[in-house]
Amino acid sequence: MSMPFGYVPAEQQMRDKADYARKGIARGRSSVVLQYEHGILFVAHNASRALHKISEIYDRIGFAAVGRYNEFEALRLGGIRYADVNGYTYDRGDVTARGLANLYAQSLGMIFTESIKPYEVEIVVAEVGRSAEEDEIYKLTFDGSVTDEHGMVAIGGQAEAVAGRLKERYHDGMTLPEALQAGVAALTEPDGERPPTSQMEVAVLDRNRPHRKFLRLTGARLERLLGDTAPKAAEPEPPAAEEPKNSGPDAPTAPDGDIDTGSGD
Amino acid sequence: MATHRDLPTGMLSNLFLDTGSPSFTEFLGNYAPDLLPGRRDALATPAGADLPHATTIVAATCAGGVVMAGDRRATSGNMISQRDVEKVWRTDDFSCMGIAGTASSGIEMARLYKVELEHYEKREGRTLSVEGKANRLATMIRGNLPMAMQGLVVVPLFAAYDPEEGKGRIFSYDVAGGPYEQRNYHMIGSGSIFARGSLKKLYREDAEPQEAVLACLQALYDAADEDSATGGPDVTRSIWPIVAVITEEGFNRLPDEEVAGLVRTMLDGRMNRPDGPIAPLR
């Protein structure tokens, strides 16, 4: 039996598409998503202030993405429509990250197999629960595969290196400043400069907030959390001597700071 | 093509199509019109009087914000159909709406409106202006006009904190839409004439939020005093009016204990003076 002209075996096609998608993703900057004591923290290195990589999907669900903006924006809008239609049809409590991850998996999988060009995106869908045990974090890749993550996850160009750095610093039940500093340190290249605060996109799903749990951290609040206000840290106050130590304002650029003392693994 | 069990039939293929419009209602109208309220075929006979109706809502501006309060009674004809119905709804962090008219249609409209505001906010990454919110609600009420003609009348009252102007604003509507911006205070529903008479004398411009809350509670009491469809505070069952205060800090529905305290203060006063506080003659 003769092969038709221009025939490419399916295996080869898939490999080419996967390579293409990986290359596209590798060009972009990374993002991390990690749990902290009151919820889930999203940190992205994003030079644009208008085009977001992190977004709210629904009451308890957040979204982080890396890769091609127009592609993950389409997925984000689809996810918002999915969540709003479901929440309106049934009840707000019936919208889950699992359902959304399934939808994305189906959609990404179909695009990967059926269209010439796969989406060059990686996505995290996270849902904050009533307690840390009920939090859910899903990572989706360009071919529609889903992984259920616990504690922390990194996506983007240098995801493996970033995840490695994050793992060194991560431990359960971190405070928000600790988690933020761990996230930022993970996104910082070893021996490199920490990305300026203006290029950090940060948001939380805070389980203690009423109604909608998603909150962007910007401006003065973010600077305070990042410990940018150096003069304050310089004068240690006797009564609160322990606190400045824990929230380590100098930690972001010091990988072996005191923030990873509790990491067992 | 894979189907997604949660979604209305045929919806999945349209989820990722960008309609170009940030309106959730428009999206539903295009792809799942059955889910929208008020698009059903004309009713065989007008309905209305027999269905539960929500009654009195009052709203008043205060220093740095706005207060909205509603009684808890729903009536069908001369029957009380619910003692603890909720008629004041948080629509987003800085706005709320109260409904009078057919309770079921009103609840549906409030749910859709809430999603509409939130959908826009998530999609566009910004909150609609207060005027934008008020206009959007007007369009939804206009959409309900055919139903209103059949007896399913819904008339909301909309209140929001305007961060640009740093003050609370109130918008009213009629069955065909609106909005009509109201200065200082406004009220809707069957007891509204009595509440208006009362609040007119008790309202102080730039009063502290708590004072404005008390004035609204007095107005609701006066409405319940004269109008059988408006419920007064139910002390034996601990059912209190719903009170929402919206300021710079956002929407805050006062906890029952706090409203109970204010209601008891009011009732104590009325033990000696059943008609409530008197306004000075000059």
* Residue windows where pLDDT falls under 50 for at least 5 positions of chain B: none
- Which homologous superfamily in CATH is the superfamily of chain B? Aminohydrolase, N-terminal nucleophile (Ntn) domain
- Structural class of chain A, please? alpha+beta
Q: Got a strand count of chain A?
A: 10
Structure report:
The complex is a heterodimer of chains A (265) and B (282). Chain A is of the alpha+beta class and 265 residues long. Chain A has one domain (27-226): Aminohydrolase, N-terminal nucleophile (Ntn) domain (Glutamine Phosphoribosylpyrophosphate, subunit 1, domain 1, 4-Layer Sandwich), CATH 3.60.20.10. Chain A has helices at 10-26, 69-89, 97-114, 159-169, 176-187, 219-226, 230-234, 242-246, and strands spanning 31-36, 39-45, 54-58, 61-67, 121-127, 136-140, 146-149, 152-155, 200-206, 214-217. In chain A, the strands form two sheets. Chain A has a five-stranded antiparallel sheet with strand order 8-1-2-9-10. A five-stranded antiparallel sheet of chain A has the order 3-4-5-6-7. Chain B has one domain: Aminohydrolase, N-terminal nucleophile (Ntn) domain (Glutamine Phosphoribosylpyrophosphate, subunit 1, domain 1, 4-Layer Sandwich). The termini of chain B are far apart. Chain B is an alpha+beta fold and 282 residues long. Chain B is globular, with a radius of gyration of 20 Å. Chain B has helices spanning 12-15, 24-31, 103-124, 130-143, 145-149, 192-202, 209-226, 256-272, and strands spanning 53-54, 57-62, 65-70, 74-76, 79-82, 88-92, 95-102, 154-162, 167-174, 177-182, 185-188, 242-247, 250-253. Helices cover 35% and strands 25% of the residues of chain B. In chain B, α6 packs antiparallel against α7 (209-226). In chain B, strands 1, 4, 5, 6, 7, 8, 9 and 10 form an eight-stranded antiparallel sheet that branches. A five-stranded antiparallel sheet of chain B has the order 11-2-3-12-13, with helices on one face. Chains A and B meet through β3, α2 and α3 of A and α2 and α3 of B.
